[in-house]
Amino acid sequence: MKVKVFVDGQEGTTGLKIHHYLSKIPHLDLLSIEPDKRKDQDARRTLMNEADLVFLCLPDAASKDSVSLISNNRTRIIDASTAFRTNSNWTYGLPELHGDQRNKIRNSTRVSVPGCHATGFILAMQPLVAEGILPKDYPATCFALTGYSGGGKKLIAEYESSNRDQLQAPRHYAFNLHHKHLPEMQLYSGLSFAPLFTPIVGNYYQGDAVTVPLVTRMFTRQITAKDVHERLASYYQDERFVRVIPYDSEAYLEDGFFNLMECNDTNNLDLFVFGHKDEVVLVSRFDNLGKGASGAAIQNMNIMLGFDEGLGLVLQE
Fold first, then answer.
1. Rounded CA separation 138/222 (Å)
2. Cα separation, 36 vs 133, whole angstroms
């Protein structure tokens, strides 16, 4: 018997991508809603309670409303919004977080997909905090350069329908220092304080690089950038979608320049370590629509349903 799946909000950027992934998986029965009933609460309630698993690809408030429509204890939910990421009643959908996280996801009925920037930051930092290399009160900073698809339909339309000169250059944002990913970045990295985070949007469609600079004089013990690389490589050595790039990474650069879009159209995340004995730079490279959103949602679904973890997560045509 096929698993019944419904995507609430499938017309958005994340929802469309999830639907594309799902269409390649034969074990599923995709429930659909008529276009004119997408905001019809009764129609959505019927489909969500019929489904075995529901993806929510909605703004935070709408996601909370959708959860309230499910009146049974059987339907499982994967939410792509920020609404439940630090809610203790929900499981954080980052399988690589630590050894028991997959088991938590597998046994959960409520899973929250991590934010894109948070994914890159947490996977870089959490092993170092957990091992005690970084003190919990380390004053972390990071910046992220991402494609405009991460801003959804409105930002996509702005970039693709305007010839304004200022759109040609990267643009910083969230200078109020209250970016919505900060709570999960702090909680799941294990830090006592949120990082000082500066996101930047560039004039390209997809691809994300989260960069975290570190100074070794503030480590709990004397180790070099190469030592940091060895710790991360060991931590992720058995992971399917997280690859720690060899420490001598010049071969992975292009004439010394970083190729931010190398992981596009995959669910992969590449983790780089640069630096020397005094300074370290960590860089997480991934697709903001893949491992940073829709790909992560499908990976969680596969774990929850007992499928192969990589089912449907192949290079997009």
1. 15
2. 54
Helices 225-235 and 116-130: angle between axes, nearest 10 degrees:
110
- Mean pLDDT of the 24-44 span: 88
For 3-113+292-304, CATH gives 3.40.50.720
Report pLDDT digits (tens) over 114-163: 999 999 999 999 999 999 999 999 999 999 999 999 998 899 999 999 88
52 in Cβ contact with 77 (< 8 Å): no
Q: Which of 57, 116, 142, 263 is catalytic?
A: 116
Protein fold of 116-286: Dihydrodipicolinate Reductase; domain 2 (3.30.360)
Q: Tell me the sheet residues that pair with 8.
A: 56
CA–CA–CA angle 150, 190, 308 (5° rounding):
60
Q: Respond yes or no: is residue 116 known to be catalytic.
A: yes
Spacing of C-alpha 90 from chain mean position: 16
Q: The sheet that has 269-275: what strands, in order across it?
A: 171-172, 196-202, 141-147, 208-215, 279-286, 269-275, 242-244
Residues 194, 177 contacting (CB under 8 angstroms)? no
